[in-house]
Amino acid sequence: MSPEEFRIHGHAVVDRIAAYMEQVESYPIMPAVEPGDIRRKLPAAAPEAPEPFDAILRDVDEIVMPGVTHWQSPGWFAFFPANVSPPAILGDLLSSGLGQQGMLWSTSPACTEIEMVMMDWLIDLLGLPEGWKTTGPGGGVIQMSASDSTHIALVVARRLAARRAPVGELVVYTSNQAHSSIEKGAAIAGYEHIRLVGVDGAFAMRPDALAAAIERDLANGLTPAAVCTSVGTTGTTAVDPIRMISGIAAAHGMWHHVDAAYAGTAMICPEFRHHQDGLELVDSYVVNPHKWMLTNFDFSAFYVADRRPLVDALSILPPYLREQAAASEQVFDYRDWHVSMGRRFRSLKLWFVLRSYGAEAIRALVRNHVRLARELADRIRGDDRLELLAPVPFALVAFRHVAGEDATDRLAAAINATGHSYVTSSELDGTRFIRVSVGQTNTAAAHVERLWSTIDAAAKPT
Ligand SMILES: Cc1ncc(COP(=O)(O)O)c(C=O)c1O
After folding, report:
1. What's the mean pLDDT in 375-397?
2. For position 317, what pLDDT does the model report?
3. Separation between Cα atoms, residue 285 and residue 257, nearest integer Å
4. Contacts of 141 (CB under 8 A, 6+ apart)
């Protein structure tokens, strides 16, 4: 494809994306396909001869689009949001076009330095500790996902704790409400002991339960290595008491990692920052702008308070990279901050987003979503057919039908059968409940109103 042909086809693809943005609300959110339907439409082998680009685009219409789940529909209330935005899409396109590999400063100075600046900008925007800036002892790096970030935090913690005890005797603690990525990251990092600590009535980790679990493990000859707390759990967006847990972590020489994958974005509004009180005491932290900050997947912001143990754990300098490695303290070789060597120019998309909208627009988006979620929660609280199961510190509403499991499942099925709204269900202590996550970029009052009408009609009198 010549540059001239690329220009023509590129315009056609951008036109399609723009049309999709305009039309997404008209599609039923879940595609009407069965497993294997898409695969059956594809040839078994790759073509030997070139095909015209128009034929490829035709298959996008006929094969791809019928199998797409419309995460970008404003009626998307499932999981957490995975927002995209036009500036972020363009930043990603430019990143692909420039084809940078930013593993060392010298392999793309712009990729490295814009990433350093974006990570520092996020510190100011989210009220994170100053010392985490790239100009201080800490620093931030873009990872693919919160799962990767947490895994790496636990690898660093394991390396430090392994000076005190064999890896087989190390223990990781998190709450029984924490995201599964913590257990997964700990297992991949080779920990054999993972404790799921009990929570209080608001589903936050109980410091006394953590202390008791640690005492039990010490009595059995084990060594506490790391604790992972959450600011915004996946089930109910519960917030663990970071400052109190930090005190316990410090007393036992444990690494303290904070998972704020979803709710970290809310901290762009100062009124939410009391939820991250004590952050200056932790060792590492993750927030995903690819959830709620208008920045396409993948963009997970991972911070460490001290970058030396991270780089010590992940740095290996083969001879073919030695000459180009950054000798200067002013710049980073980001390949020492994650598992892969190659890395994309992902900071461009956040740079484009922040400059195109400005922070104030993102604050307005977050505040609007939180207001809509709390209004829905008020309606649920006032309806005796329904029960709200958890506080609503951010924009997630967790509720059930008082008639029980089947009624709750039927209600979720009725919402999802509308095609215009989509929710996911989960379980708390064996009780089924419905999660309504308000966070898609274009979700407005009318969409939540439509969802409420469906809930109201489907809940039926008890
Ligand atoms: C609290 C929390 N942590 C971690 C994750 C995993 O995020 P990722 O897909 O970036 O690994 C999620 C996903 O929703 C989450 O809610």
Report:
1. 97
2. 76
3. 6
4. 115, 119, 301, 302, 332, 334, 337, 338
Global pTM? 0.96
Q: Tell me how far apart the alpha carbons of residues 447 and 415 are, in angstroms, rounded to a whole number.
A: 12
Residues whose CB falls within 8 Å of the CB of residue 314, separated by 6 or more in sequence, listed in order: 152, 155, 156, 336, 337, 338, 339
Q: What pLDDT does residue 326 have?
A: 65
Residue 461: pLDDT above 90?
Answer: no
424 membership: H or E segment, kind and range: strand 424-428
CB 141 within 8 A of CB 213: no
Nearest residue (by CA) to ligand 1, atom 16, is 234
321 C-alpha to center of ligand 1: Å? 33
Decide whether any atom of ligand 1 lies within 6 Å of the 142 Cβ. no
The alpha carbon of 181 and the centre of ligand 1 are apart by a number of angstroms equal to: 7
Under 8 Å between Cβ of 324 and 107: yes
- Tracing tokens 């505040």 back to the chain, one arrives at 367
Q: Which two tokens stand for residue 157?
A: 């913690």
Gap from CA of 292 to ligand 1 centroid (Å): 12
| Distance in angstroms (rounded) separating the CA atoms of residues 3 and 10 | 10
Beta bridge partners, 231, equal 239
The Cα 162–Cα 160 span in angstroms is: 6
Nearest ligand 1 atom to alpha carbon 260: 1
Which residue, 119, 100, 89, is CA-closest to 13?
Answer: 89
Ligand 1 within 6 A of CB of 237: no
181 pocket-lining for ligand 1 (C-beta < 6 Å) = yes
Name residue 274's amino acid.
Answer: H
Contact 147 CB / ligand 1 (< 6 Å): yes
The DSSP letter of residue 63 is I
For the chain, the straight-line distance linking the first and the last C-alpha, in angstroms and rounded, comes to 64
Q: Which domains does the chain have, with CATH numbers?
A: 3-68 (1.20.1340.10), 93-357 (3.40.640.10), 359-459 (3.90.1150.10)
